[in-house]
């Protein structure tokens, strides 16, 4: 073989290996794409940037396409030097101006059910030491027009996560931060995951479920479970009672289609072998009385078990038969108005083994207390905002919540739905002709378009609007 032939063969082999490597990298990138219905927003990430998370292999994107206001900050270097940190928490977006600032998340599936998670980590990003032994940051978090929760930041180094299961009514979702006068609102991370419609049936168009606790029966050093072990990226934290006995099986445990608890969670379980037939008893208490739902998940580790479940000394379900490698879930059909729960899982007289508990979830009820702006009025004013690129803090719903209506928008709150009755766009740098969208505000009484650069004649149809009194 000549030297030229050897060189040619070597080049061909190298070219082949490079081709295979490129295919491998492309396949890896494809496999790292987030599942359909997932959206991961790193608040404060530089415009148009994205990255793959090292742990979940999910893609995170910048928040610049979902929000129009706020300032980007990086957390204090004091907390990053020589410390390992998740990339999602290195930056954040703060909202020092305006009482209400909103993210508009789209596209969403109308009537779709979603798990929504918002995360916050302060770490003295502003250099003001606003969180300390005698100070904290407090602001409200809204989903659409309804209060989701009050964010209370009392520890500068702690991550605060708020999670909701909700049904969206439109092709978008608004997440709003409300300044209540107790510190500047900020946010680190927003994550949304679409759920199957049959999961968590208590979440519907009129009420949402606010996560209080999600734990699986594993010891403290066992891992936190989330995606990809959980296809819906629910976060399961280990929890255990020392006098209980831990069970574990290495092979698959079949999950109920109603809740789709990950097999990895169901492969862990606990029983109490110190009592007769190992009945499980525990209490969970929370800071305040609320309407709560309880979900108890059990995986069949080995053998066959039959047991009853009592909640606050009242039979909740049973007898329940749990076979090996199968699973079952017991949940409260209606919310309990209580400070906590008292649970007893007791084997029946004919059971050959003690009951098992693999995991529990607790949610409080978040009702839809507010009513959205009339759909026609909402669509009309959104078109006006788009046509003229209105430079106002117009985010979320124009009329709801009532205390946070859009600047320049006046609303009337009818028994059915709020309607827009006045609109002041004076000195708003409007250019061009008068949009047809104004005609769609059927109940408007006062319209002020003065001191702008509008051209053309005033349309006769505008003057003939039935409710218009002042133009």
Number of strands: 28
Helix content: 10-25%
Q: How far do the termini sit from each other?
A: 92 Å
Number of helices: 4
Spans where pLDDT lies below 50 across 5 or more residues: 2-15, 17-30
Taking the sheet with the most strands, its summary is:
14 strands, mixed
Instruction: Classify the beta-strand content into a percent band.
Output: 35-45%
Shape: elongated
| Nearest-integer average pLDDT | 87
Rg result: 28 Å
Q: What is the structural class?
A: mainly beta
Short description:
It contains four helices and 28 strands. With 471 residues, the protein is mainly β.
How would you describe this protein?
- With about 475 residues, the chain is mostly beta strands.
- The strands form six sheets. Strands 1, 2, 3, 7, 10, 13, 14, 15, 18, 19, 20, 21, 22 and 23 form a 14-stranded mixed β-sheet that branches. A four-stranded antiparallel β-sheet has the order 6-11-8-9, with no helix packed on it. The protein has a three-stranded antiparallel β-sheet with strand order 4-5-12, with no helix packed on it.
- The chain is elongated.
- The N terminus is likely disordered.
């Amino acid at each position: 073989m000549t030297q030229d032939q050897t060189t040619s063969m070597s080049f061909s082999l190298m070219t082949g290996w490079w081709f295979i490597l490129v295919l491998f990298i492309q396949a890896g990138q494809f496999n790292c794409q987030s599942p359909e219905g997932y959206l991961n927003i790193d608040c404060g990430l530089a415009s148009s940037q994205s990255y793959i998370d090292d742990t979940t292999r999910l893609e995170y994107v910048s928040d610049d396409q979902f929000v129009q206001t706020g300032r980007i900050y990086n957390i204090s270097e004091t907390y990053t030097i020589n410390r390992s940190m998740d990339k999602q928490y290195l930056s954040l977006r703060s909202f020092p101006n305006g009482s209400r600032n909103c993210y508009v998340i789209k596209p969403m599936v109308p009537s779709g059910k979603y798990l929504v998670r918002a995360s916050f980590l302060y770490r003295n990003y502003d250099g003001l030491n606003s969180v300390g032994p005698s100070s904290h940051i407090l602001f409200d978090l809204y989903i659409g027009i309804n209060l989701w929760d009050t964010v209370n930041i009392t520890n500068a180094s702690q991550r605060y996560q708020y999670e909701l299961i909700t049904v969206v009514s439109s092709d978008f979702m608004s997440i709003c931060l409300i300044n209540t006068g107790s510190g500047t609102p900020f946010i680190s991370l927003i994550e949304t995951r679409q759920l199957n419609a049959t999961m968590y049936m208590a979440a519907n168009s009129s009420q949402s479920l606010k996560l209080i606790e999600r734990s699986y029966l594993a010891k403290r050093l066992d891992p936190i479970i989330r995606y990809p072990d959980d296809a819906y990226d629910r976060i399961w934290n280990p929890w255990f009672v020392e006098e209980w006995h831990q069970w574990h099986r290495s092979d698959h445990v079949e999950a109920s289609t109603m809740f789709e608890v990950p097999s990895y969670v169901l492969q862990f379980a606990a029983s109490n072998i110190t009592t007769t037939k190992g009945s499980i008893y525990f209490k969970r208490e929370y800071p305040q009385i609320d309407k709560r739902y309880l979900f108890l998940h059990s995986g069949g580790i080995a053998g066959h078990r039959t047991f009853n479940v009592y909640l606050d000394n009242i039979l909740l379900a049973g007898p329940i038969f749990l076979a090996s490698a199968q699973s079952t879930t017991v949940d409260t059909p209606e919310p309990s108005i209580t400070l906590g729960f008292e649970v007893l899982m007791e084997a029946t007289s004919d059971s050959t083994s003690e009951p098992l508990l693999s995991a529990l979830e607790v949610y409080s009820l978040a009702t839809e207390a507010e009513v959205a702006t009339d759909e026609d009025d909402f669509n009309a004013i959104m078109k006006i905002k788009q046509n003229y690129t209105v430079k106002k803090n117009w985010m979320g719903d124009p009329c709801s919540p009532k205390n946070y209506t859009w600047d320049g928008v006046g609303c009337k709150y009818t028994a059915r739905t709020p309607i827009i009755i006045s609109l002041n766009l004076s000195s708003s740098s409007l250019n061009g002709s008068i949009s047809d969208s104004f005609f769609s505000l059927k109940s408007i009484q006062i319209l002020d378009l003065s001191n702008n650069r509008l051209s053309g004649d005033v349309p006769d149809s505008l003057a003939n609007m039935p409710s218009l009194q002042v133009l």
